[in-house]
Write a structure and sequence with these properties.
GO terms for molecular function: metal ion binding; oxidoreductase activity; quinol-cytochrome-c reductase activity. One of its GO terms (cellular component) is respiratory chain complex III. Pfam families: Cytochrom_B_C (PF00032), Cytochrome_B (PF00033). This is Cytochrome b. The chain has about 375 residues and is mostly helical. The protein has two domains: about 240 residues, Cytochrome Bc1 Complex, Chain C (Up-down Bundle); about 110 residues, Orthogonal Bundle (Helix Hairpins), CATH 1.10.287. It contains 15 helices and two strands. Strands 1-2 form a two-stranded antiparallel sheet. Helix 4 crosses helix 5, helix 11 crosses helix 14 and helix 11 packs across helix 15. About 30% of the residues are buried.
Amino acid sequence: MNKSMMKTNPLLKFFSNSLIFLPTPMNINYWWNLGSLLGLCLMIQILSGLFLSMHYNPSIDQAFNSVIHIMKDINQGWLMRLIHMNGASMFFICLYIHIGRGIYYNSFMLIETWSIGVIIYLMTMATAFLGYVLPWGQMSLWGATVITNLISAIPYLGNSIVEWIWGGFSVSNPTLNRFYSLHFILPFIILILVVFHLMFLHLTGSKNPLGSNSNMNKIIFYPYFLTKDMITFIMILIIFFIFILQFPYNLGDPDNFIPANPMITPIHIKPEWYFLFAYAILRAIPNKLGGVIALLFSILILLLLPWMNKYYTKYPKFNPFNQCLFWIFCSSFFMLTWLGGKEIEYPYIQLSQIYTILYFNFFFSTQFFNKMWNFLIFK
């Protein structure tokens, strides 16, 4: 690449510094590939969503039929829709593994990078929720009604805010229109945040599995890690296309094949699988306002991790307390996801309460156990 061109073109310089000359710790493993996979997922979602938006009609009378029109009448429309629909699940699978890796290896100590990452996570959840409403099936309508109604738990202002979001006294045409507009614009905001996320990461440098000083042994990103990323790109795309061509509707809800009907409530209203852990926490609290606070706190608590782990261990790979707590946290996350899809009855409510305690216990107990481990090892 011509160096004079790089000096005159800042965009070219940014990409060359990010994809070619970036100094990278030589011992990072495949868990660090999830960041680039998330970039791939984001581009797939933006491009497939752009094509779908050309034929989608954001009207309560035409939305459901326009989705059928895309599936049946548009050339390769079925493929675009299945890619976009299942791409959201692929995005969240990669996102949760990426966050899990960050927690396990204490990457949250890169405070600016971590904070922007959590904001991206929140924006992604908002985008996914808005997108789930757009097909205007039964679960889309009632899921939107239930989730937006949670805001009514805010004292004094709650009901007014809900009506302002709806654009009326129920989820109707104005709601669908504004959800469509927001669903279209939010991915581009996420894209801007991703650029800032990478900028801060490049300023501080990546962590590594050993937790040691990464500046001692670094190599350039190209060709070593770019080749490594390409391998995972190919693997994930093969798995992804096998899934969308063989099991396209396995992660969806059958009720969403029924056109939205405000006069008939589904027997069991639940969100998509990637929201179920938060939904289970919401249902575990008997008080409505308390449940909403717990739901928000289950995500926002990630922002507090750098300060809650003041006595964090620099070598998490060799800390048995950290590892035990982390895997208990992961098991509680999986169990809450499973419980979120179950009926509101015994024993699922009681189990949800137990695993909610275990979920939050991880964040409050790690500081104590890290301090104890540091005392035992470095006394």
